[in-house]
Amino acid sequence: MNGYESSLRQCVDAVVISTKAESQFWLKGPQGKVALQFFDKHVTPLVLVDSQSVRLNLEQAKLTYFWLKIPQGSFLSAGHYHTSVDVRLISNTQHRPVSTQTRNINYYVKPFASLTVDSDRYSWMKSSGSYHQVMLGRLKTGLKRQFDLQVLSNANVVMEVEPKNGVLMHVDSQGAIPYYLLVNNQRVKASKQPVSFELGRMSARTPSSIPFGIEVGSIRNAIAGNYREVLKISVIAKL
Questions:
Q1: Facing residues of 15 across strands?
Q2: Which of 18, 26, 27, 205 is an S-S bond match for 53, by CB 3.0 to 4.6 Å?
Q3: For every one of its 239 residues, what pLDDT tens digit does the chain have, with 9 covering 90 and above?
Q4: How far apart are CA 73 and CA 84, in angstroms?
Q5: How many angstroms separate the CA atoms of 17 and 15, rounded?
Q6: Which domain of life is it from (predicted)?
Q7: Angle at 207 between CA 204 and CA 210, to 5 degrees
């Protein structure tokens, strides 16, 4: 919500807001032109003076509040949006502008990214909150478990995978089996170092499916028993 101070209330009864060289109100930014709408404090659309102007009637109070609305604001690409408008004070006696000023409107859309897994699609996966357990079954060289990660974002996304051990660790001994990370059609041998994957620009409307999985390395001379690894997967939104 915005406000207009009416220190000139005795001689001014309205403010007319007009676009500058545009056919309607727009904000310009990373997603191009996006519509901008004006409402009074009761969320009633301001009266159109013409296709390029709206009228805000001033109240008796010191401040007259109004709203700016971006209809598609929930789905905008991250970044800075801006426009300029002319603001004219309208005389309540002569009914004509007594002052005209240019004002800038700036709006910043924060980058965000979220990650989900539809574990019900996979019989070998169990989930509890943000923790997902992938059961590999009987290990063999080249065994793969692959699934889709659903990423929703309004920006460019980097996925970071942080292994705890960098290998499949035997639960009762020091035995270890190498493995590979399979992310978005890339195959990278796991280590203790975090690995980053550039996913590109995502959609804020519809989740994007990112293939993810692991591939068991050579089990030659591996000790019999159970093996385990923990992966922390993060998605980071960047402008």
A1: 56, 89
A2: 18
A3: 665 554 555 577 889 999 987 788 999 999 999 999 999 999 999 999 988 899 999 888 788 899 999 999 989 999 999 999 999 988 776 566 678 899 999 999 999 999 999 999 999 999 999 999 999 999 999 999 999 999 999 999 999 999 999 999 999 999 999 999 999 999 999 999 999 999 999 999 999 999 999 999 999 999 999 999 999 999 999 98
A4: 18
A5: 6
A6: Bacteria
A7: 125
- With b for 16 or more beta-carbon neighbours within 10 A and e for fewer, the 200-222 pattern comes to ebbebeebbebebbbbbbebeeb
pTM here is 0.82
Please state, in angstroms and rounded to a whole number, the distance separating the CA atoms of residues 59 and 227. Answer: 72
What the block records as the tokens of 232 is 């922390």
